[in-house]
Amino acid sequence: MEATSTISLEDALRDPLLVKQPVETLQRFAKRLTKLQAKDSENVRAAKIGIQGGFTVDFLSELMPLFLRHRGLHATIRNAPYGAFQTEILDASSAFWEFNADLVFLLPTSRDLQHLPQPTSDEKTIDALVKAELRIWHLLWERLEMPVVQFTIAPGSTRSLGEADGLYPGGELHYIREVNRRLVREAPSHVSFVDTERLAIQVGPGWHDERLYRLAKQPFSMEALPTIANALAATAAAALGLSRKALILDLDNTLWGGEIGDSGLDGIALGPETAEGESFVAFQKYLKALSCRGIVLCVCSKNNERIAREPFENHGAMILRLEDFAEFCANFDDKASNIRAIAKKLNLGLDAFVFLDDSPVECALVRENLPHVWTLQLAGDPSGFASLLDCAMAFPTRHLSAEDVNRTESYRKLGEVNSGMQQATDIDSFLQGLSPTAVIESVREDTIERISQLIGKTNQFKLNPTTYSTAEIRDLADHVLAIRFKDRLQDYGIVAVAVTDPEAAEGVLTIRNWVMSCRVFSRRLEFLTFELFSERACALNLPRLRLEYRDSGRNGLVGELLTKLGFERGMSEEEFLSTPTDIKGTPPHYIERIGTWPQSFEYSSNKK
User: Fold this and answer.
1) Are 467 and 527 in the same domain?
2) Cα(30)–Cα(233) distance, integer angstroms
C-alpha cells in the first residue's frame, strides 16, 4: 500500500507497511488513536509499558501507542524522567515500580557508556572495560522480572579512528560492537534486543541529528522515529506472544515470474539465466530461511493443483520444495475462503497470518473479508520482494527453540491429522490409532525457556493474560505442570502448561493460568490435563478447583470448554469454580501418561 496522507487510521492499522507513512501523518494518527481505542479496545490486549530511555523519549512515546496497537496491543505508557532511567529501576520506592509495567523498554545510547577506550587501548584493556560496562546492566536485569525490550548501543556520530574505528580495539565503534555482543550473550532469557546498528543503516545518514539532541536531547532525527517505533513494537509483540506465525504465498509472479498454467515449466522466469529469474530465486532463499526459523509457509493459488505442484517437483532452480509447506491449496475458489480453510486446518487464528500476492484484486478481496490477515501486494521488480516483507517486521525473532525450528513439519503433520479426522467415520478409533502419549515434564534448565515462552506466546487456548518470567517459573517449579505430547507421527514438544497457586486458601486449588498450543487442539489433551488437576486436588484434600478466565476475543474456545469440565461462575465475572469429579460427559482421550506431577511440597496456608 503506497504511503499517502489520505489513508484512514483504521486502514493504516491494518497495513503491514504502516512504518512507511510520513512521520507527520503518523503523529496525526497517534492523536486520533485515543478515540478509536475507546471504541474497540475491549477485544485488544491491554499492556502497561514503561519507557526507560537515556534520552528524551517524548516524541517516541507519542508514536508508540500507534505502533503497539498496530501489533494488537492497547498500551498505557509511562516515560522515565530524563537522566533517571537506570536509577529509577534500582530504587524500589520509585514511581517506576508503582506503575507496575507489563513490559519495559530499556533504551540506552552511546552517551550512556561509562568506560570508553582510548585510541591506544589493547584487547586486554577492552575486555576489562566491557566487563565494567556490563555491571550496571546485570543489576538492572536482576531487578526486572517482566519482559524487557532493550536497545543495543547504536554507533555514535563520529569515529575517533576514522574508517578503522570498527576494526581495531581502540575504536569507539569496535568497543560498542563488543559491548553489544556481550550484552546479547549474557542477558537473561526475558530480555529481547533491538539491533540499533541495523536500524541506523536502514535509516541512513538521517539517523543522527546533533542539533535536535542539543535542543531536545533526542539523538536521532524525527524521520528515524517510525523505524525505531516499528522495531520496538514488533519486538514487544514477540515478547508478549503476539507475533505472526504463518506466511501464505501465491505462486505465479510471486515465487516465479509468469503463469505456470499458460507458460508451462520452461516458460516461467526462475533461475540465474535472467535478472528477473535470479531475483525470484533470491526471494525463495529468503522464504526458506524464514521457514528454517519456524515461520509456517503455506500456498494459496488459483491454479490447477497438479500444474501448480509441477515446478516444485521438476524445476531445477526451485529453492522451496513441497515439504517446506504446511498447507498447499491450489484451486479456483476465492482466496479469502481458502485462507479461512487453511487457518481452520492449522488451528491458527487469522491474525497469525501474512498473505503475499501480486494481484491487486486478490489483495483487496482478502483485505476486505479478512481484515486481521496482514496482506501485502507484491508488484514490480521482484528484487525488492524480500526487502518489502522484511520492512514490515511481521515475524520478529526472540529466542529460537527446538519447537520453533521444527514448526513447519509439526504443522504439516497436524494438517494430516486434521484431514484424517475429517475423513474418519470413527473418530475415537482414529485418535486411539495415533498412539498418543503425554509426558509430564519437570521444570529444568532445558525446559524452563520453552515453558515461559509457551505461556507468553499462546493466545487461543489461554485462561488469562498472566505471564511468567523464567525466574518466576523457577520459583514456582513444584506448582508448574508441563506436558510434552507425542504420537506415532511426531514429538510435538511441550504443548501444555499450567501454573497453580502455592497457597490453597479455603480448601481451593487455584489454577493461575493454563495454556495449550493450537497444534494439539482436537487431540483431547485438555481432558487429560483436567484429570491431572483433579488428581492433584484430591491428593491434597482440596475439594474445589478455581480459575480466572478472561475473554480476550481470541480465547473463546476455553470458555466453551469450562462448561464441559463442570466449571460454574463464582463470585465475580471472571471467577470459575468446579469440583474434581464434575466432568460432564467428556469424551475419552486415549492418551497414555508417562511421569507424575511433583508432589514434594506443602501448600503454604489453609491446606485441608
Assistant:
1) yes
2) 14
Cβ atoms < 10 Å from Cβ of 124: 9
Give the domain range for residue 109: 9-239
Q: Are residues 157 and 211 in the same domain?
A: yes
Helix, strand, coil shares of the chain as percentages rounded to 5?
45, 20, 35
Q: How far is CA 82 from CA 52, 53, 101, 138, 544, in A?
A: 9, 7, 18, 21, 50
Please name the residues in contact with 585: beta carbons below 8 A apart, sequence gap of 6 or more. Answer: 564
Phi, psi dihedral angles at 545 (to 5 degrees): -110, 145
Q: Are residues 66 and 171 in the same domain?
A: yes
For the domain that residue 137 is a member of, what is the CATH number?
A: 3.40.50.1110
* Rounded Cα–Cα distance for residues 352 and 373 (Å): 7
Q: Is the pTM of this model over 0.85?
A: no
216 and 277 both lie in a single domain: no
What confidence score (pLDDT) does residue 434 get?
Answer: 83
Of residues 159 and 232, more confidently modeled: 232
Look up residue 317 and give its DSSP letter: T
Closest CA to 347 of 326, 362, 331: 326
Which helix (DSSP H) or strand (DSSP E) does residue 368 occupy? helix 360-369
Taking only the tens place, the pLDDT of each residue in 68-91 is: 999 999 999 999 999 899 999 999
